[in-house]
Amino acid sequence: MLSKKTQYGLKALGYLASRYGQGPVLISEIAKKKKxxxxxxxxxxxxxxNKGVLDSKKGKGGGYFLANSPKKTTLAAAIRIVDGPxxxxxxxxxxxxxxxxxxxxxxxGLNKAMAYTRDxxxxxxxxxxxxxxxxxxx
Amino acid sequence: MLSKKTQYGLKALGYLASRYGQGPVLISEIAKKKKxxxxxxxxxxxxxxNKGVLDSKKGKGGGYFLANSPKKTTLAAAIRIVDGPxxxxxxxxxxxxxxxxxxxxxxxGLNKAMAYTRDxxxxxxxxxxxxxxxxxxx
DNA sequence: TAGTAGTCTATTTAATTAGTAGAGTATTAT
DNA sequence: ATAATACTCTACTAATTAAATAGACTACTA
Lengths: 138, 138
Description:
The structure is a homodimer. By secondary structure, chain A is mostly helical. The first copy, chain A, has helices at about 5-20, 25-35, 40-50, 75-80, 110-125; strands at about 55, 65.
């Protein structure tokens, strides 16, 4: 399961995607619409900004907005920023790889199965983008 | 990511799969071979036994063993027992479903994307079994 | 220059995960 | 029988991560 933090982040990104091209959106507005604790949301958006997914404008009329078109950011990228690894075990993670102490990857059955699962998951998450998070109504 | 507990569980199941049909295996042997804290492993194996995946024999010559042929237990089943949901968000989980408070599933973009991802993951994890966890050597 | 709105640091609380300890119970070989 | 073996069960503790809060600071715009 994705952490609550990541779930909040994806909800927020979906909302910002639906408002793309319409100028900055207040954190407070996102928080209210998506029912996310505002201070918690602040830190999530900041993190996404620091990684280049979001941009913001300070002062009156300020707020957050997507740094790029919704189709430019994949779900895989967003999840990696907020949640970390997408793979189910560290020794098959592409971006957060960690070696197993107790097994040889060349012969490990678990490694093979999980690498296969990772590929199937990534095939989707690398293709789906923030654009796909836009709600079909409301 | 799967919890450490689940990773341990899968390693242990892989080992027991490789020893299927050869009688009970000591917890201590599994712990040693797979470098798992023995007391922690105890509780994992017990949990798997209570769900019918494993069986055990007490006393001298006792130990744990698979309750069924390795191909009978899917990775999805094993993961659900130890880790819980396989889906990335609760509102698309088949076995641990929880309704979103803040969105309508019929129109939610995130819901759609995650349901799609879940299907791809399950397609593999429902097909792969403990048999696939057997190491190709050693 | 006042007010708005994001930025940043630090702290707290809660929950979950990971691991430990030890007494209890069933089984089997002798 | 009984001693040794090996799983069972309950309880506890430590470590880590998630979640949420507080408040001072900075930048921007009207």
